[in-house]
Amino acid sequence: MTDKKEQITELEEVVIRFSGDSGDGMQLTGTLFSDTSALLGNDLATFPDYPAEIRAPQGTVGGVSGFQVHFGHSQVNTPGDYADVLVAMNPAALKANVKWAKHGGTIIIDIDSFTEKNLEKAGCVTDPLNQLGFRDFNIVRAPITTLTKESLKGLNLDTKSILRSKNMFALGMVYWLFHRPLEFTTKFFEDKFKKIPIIIEANKIVLKAGYFYAETIEALHPSYSVKPAQIEKGTYRNINGNTATAWGLLAAAEKSGLNLFLGSYPITPASEILQELSKRKDLGVKTFQAEDEIAGICTAIGASFGGQLAVTTTSGPGLSLKSEAIGLAVITELPLVIVNVQRGGPSTGLPTKTEQSDLLQALYGRHGESPLVVIAASSPSDCFHYAFQAAKIALEHMTPVILLTDGFLANGSEPWKLPKMEDLPKINPPLVEAGTVDYQPYQRLNESMVRGWAIPGTKGLEHRIGGLEKMAVTGAVSYVPENHQVMTIEREQKIDRVVDVVPDLEIMGDQDSGLLMIGWGGTYGHLYTAYRELKKEGYNFSFAHFNYIKPLPKNTHDILSGFKKLLVCEINLGQFANYLRMKYQDLEFMQYNKIQGLPFTVIELKEKIISLLEEQ
Amino acid sequence: MRNNNMAEDCIYTAKDFKSDQEVRWCAGCGDHAVLNAVHKVMAEQGFPKENYALVSGIGCSSRFPYYMNTYAFHGIHGRAAAIASGLKVANPDLHVWVVTGDGDSLAIGGNHFIHVVRRNIDLNVILLNNQIYGLTKGQYSPTSLEGQITKTSPYGTIESPFHPGELVIGAQGKFFARSLDNNVKLTIEILHEAANHKGTSIVEVLQNCVIYNDKAYAAITDKETRADRQLFLKHGKPMIFGKDNDKGIVLDGLRLKVVKLGENGINEKDILVHDAHQPNPILHLMLVNMNYPEFPVALGVIRAVKATTYDVKLEDQIEKVKAGSKIHTMNDLLYSGNVWSV
Known about the structure:
The structure holds two protein chains of two kinds.
Chain A: E1 9-11, E2 13-21, H1 26-39, E3 43-49, E4 64-72, E5 83-88, H2 91-97, E6 101-110, H3 116-121, E7 138-142, H4 144-151, H5 159-164, H6 166-177, H7 183-192, H8 197-216, E8 224-226, E9 235-240, H9 241-256, E10 260-264, H10 271-278, E11 286-289, H11 293-305, E12 309-314, H12 316-332, E13 336-342, H13 359-364, E14 373-376, H14 382-397, E15 400-406, H15 407-411, E16 413-417, E17 464-466, H16 481-496, E18 507-508, E19 515-520, H17 524-536, E20 542-546, E21 548-550, H18 556-560, E22 565-570, H19 575-583, E23 590-593, H20 602-615
Parallel strand pairs in A: 1-8, 2-5, 5-6, 6-7, 10-11, 10-12, 12-13, 13-15, 14-15, 19-20, 19-22, 22-23
Antiparallel strand pairs in A: 2-4, 3-4, 9-16, 14-21, 18-20
Helix pairs in contact in A: 1-6, 4-8, 6-8, 7-8, 9-10, 9-14, 11-12, 17-20
Chain B: H1 31-45, E1 52-56, E2 71-74, H2 80-90, E3 95-101, H3 102-108, H4 110-119, E4 123-129, H5 164-170, E5 175-180, H6 184-196, E6 201-206, H7 218-221, H8 226-229, E7 230-233, E8 240-241, E9 247-252, E10 255-260, H9 282-288, E11 297-304, H10 310-324, H11 330-334, E12 339-341
Parallel strand pairs in B: 1-2, 1-3, 3-4, 4-6, 5-6, 7-11
Antiparallel strand pairs in B: 5-11, 8-9, 9-10
Helix pairs in contact in B: 1-6, 3-4
């Protein structure tokens, strides 16, 4: 055995991709590795890549589940483009993921799974390991299945349980490779399997077996180390976008003094928000799993009429179903948060993949003139902030707000510096007090044009609202032609005035660099990483990212008009670019689009920017 | 502010529940009588006026909210049950009423209708069944009779109609009652029972649309013959009907049968006694499906079975979870579990 200490190589950042059959436990393996790295002080970002089928036929490419983690000594904003280390538990996993492995990188495979039968299931005509392309990689052919069985021989465990723990063998190998301690993971086993000591024991044995195996064989590069990142002082936790969204809503409920009501219907990739909030009865949350998407939003509208912070959560197809009811919330001017976790569309599309293609639906996907506020989160952890903001704006401006996240943010996770509740702003909805004389439901109260919110149960404020056009001020049903115009304009202006609480657009880089890269929502991590790396490499351009879509920040035109070239990058065919074109007809926008159900890669963004800069 | 138990302190008359809006239903429409009954029942129930909320969907009947001087919400087509569910769950101290129609609740809103019944949320639902689409001017509805000629069935419908009572029982409904628009006394009596019942109460009102489906119920409402064609059910009372109170309902094997008292040795003892509280729905199902000419149509409270409501179960669960949890504030949650300090 060589002296390990002397051969540790320090790395700035590393990307690892764990892949296997959807029953192989790759999500757990990746999560355990990420947690350990986060506790060691690395900055990191993760992204799971799993099939829509719960258990696609075993061993097929369709059933491959992957989990990528990017961790580093410096700032990490994306899960990484290509993997330095790819773990593939079977031929299908290798076939599906080899395109994500960095040339010259390491591929760890379970050689026991490369049987003729499995190769056939994976649709491989010849053994991919014999193909030319694989010469570029350092391939570690580990007999993972055999050694897992061997190490558990002494335990009285059934074959199924034995095979189920082979992912821990792979994890053990990767832990050795990156010089990670095992304690956090063994602690996890002890908590998770408290009631089945034999499983704790088995997992510990296999994890260590993998670790020692990696140490023993010479095929692996001597261990690497990635030092802790320079991280701001504070208390942290790993959080994914869906949990952060749920918690942002909870925080808004606490800050507004209202109960949180969620009316929702399960849909990938948004269900986790409903699941997370269902746990929070201890904070008084009422979750209502409705019979369909329409009932999800309609119960929320009822709860909003009833004086609660009302929310509905969904993904694209569900947003379509909710359109009519969103219009009802617009005309009744009730606060409502609609969270849309975007996925690949149209129709059922790509349920587990990410996309930004619901932007125009969020803005305009309703009949009639039906304005509302649209905002977008840009990282897994800032889903907390934007969910909080969505609720704050909804409550203080008496309007529905659509919060756009996406599958990438929803499932991706990163360390998050925890806020203190006392540092968050208070939320002040325009509640009408009992005893108010001559309450008029549609009387506009102030500059922001909100109407007063009178809660059923409050004496003396009995009133009727609904979907028919309202008379200005009184809210009585009105078919008066001129009144309809007045009310239509008032509803639009009310949303326009939300601009007063929208922070100014900030740009990174020089105002006069000539090229502005523009993004919105979930692409932030990739765009920012491309920007940072190119700046480091000496390229001169600027970057602006939007979270507030409607209304746009006040200074948007001022900023944009200072650049000769404007490049809008988005995961759709150009919806935000077209929106900006409509708003700013004096400006010209270029587009960079990708629509594969996948995030941008930093590499392709950099190539695009470089090509534009070289044109100049 | 939301006190449920102030009934005795609040003296109201029906007038207190009328809004200042002009009622725009057609002259002779059955909805007028139902509106008056609701005003009267709400006044007599005596809860503070601000604790009533009425929700409707779309259709003629759904214009109801504008004629109320309570909190009220005019929703969108079919969704009244869902909106009302959210309102009641959010604010369980309110007395939430729903007014809907056969198109609103049994066609476009069918899904919400069966699920609100299944969940047993404490709502009082008035289902005005005129067997036609009125507001859209005369197309057939899911309760229109097979063969009925309407604008969209010029050769007669070829669809089998829903029977609301059957649907309610199929959805595990705990309360179902039936009235007639022109029998205000019965409607008031039933609405009181519906209001007092904890859980989803469905009250079907057979309602005449004078314009598009006039005389739909004439066979059972005609003054001359109605006593023989209507059966008023009362819990604990025998199922006797007829102009001369000489007819009754008996169970004959697995089906109901109309018998004449005094004939073939039948006397009052042989007649079925109505048990609205019986959880087993078999007999209730037979009663809701009785129809003229073979049977009289059953009116009154057909089924009223006690069960814990969704809203009560939810509040109980929240209290229980709160008591057993270490998390009481957002800060508790944020800093719980796997956190680390840098």
